[in-house]
Amino acid sequence: MTNKQIPVLVADPSLIANFNRDVTLGVGERFTINVENATDDIQKVSLISAFYDLLSKGDVSELKANGFNVSAAAFDGTAKVGGKDVVFKSGNPTATISAFLRYIRTNPRLLQSLLITTDNEEAYNSSIELTKANPMGNGKTVFIDINQFFMPEQYQSGRVIVDFTREPLEISDDLVMAINIPAGAKMGFNFRF
User: Fold this and answer.
1) What tens digit of pLDDT does each residue of 8-63 get?
2) I need a surface site. Which of 5, 48, 60, 145 has the fewest CB within 10 A?
3) Domain ranges of the chain
4) pLDDT in tens, 80-109
């Protein structure tokens, strides 16, 4: 047997970085909130409602009293808005939206990405509104333009990934996350930690 040199292939570091990024998007803890707006108007909904209590399912009076102009907030069920339905459902068969929201209130998590799916591309002409809530005066609202994450070359037009890996977003008991849902649209929000 002779000792022959085995050729070593050297990969381009940028390819490895992109591969690692793509792989990390496929792993991690996840939770999905699905929203269906069966009304005739755009509805602003709160996906994360900070420390505010929804006194009854779908009651957003405490959020509104503290400056958040939302018509519905995520919970397990259907909110009536102008006599029509805004339906919230967990995308996880073993966990409820309520359990997820209670968990992140007591266990803050760093969001790595948010996959947004929709059957209505008009939804991408909206922004995610992020506000640090405080009963003595809310913090500044930051807007994330969803359209900036839509890439025309992607194969599936009904989805975007908002990537927070460079600067993770803390999901906790002081964050209000709201978004507009177009009339008649269905949207899914997959939180990856």
Assistant:
1) 444 445 444 454 555 555 556 899 999 999 999 999 999 999 998 775 666 898 99
2) 5
3) 29-192
4) 998 899 999 999 988 999 999 999 999 999
Residue with tokens 């709201």: 178
CA–CA separation, 59 vs 93, rounded Å? 24
Give the DSSP per-residue string, the chain. Answer: ---PPPP-----HHHHHHHHHHHHTTSS-EEEEEEEE-SSS-EEEEEEETT---SSTT--HHHHHTT---SEE--SEEEEETTEEEEEEES-TT--HHHHHHHHHHS-EEE-EEEEEES-GGGGGSEEEEEE--TT----EEEEEGGGG--TTSS-TTEEEEE-SSSPEEESTTEEEEEEE-TT-EEEEEEE-
The pLDDT value recorded for residue 155 is 55
Query: Residues, the chain, total?
Result: 193
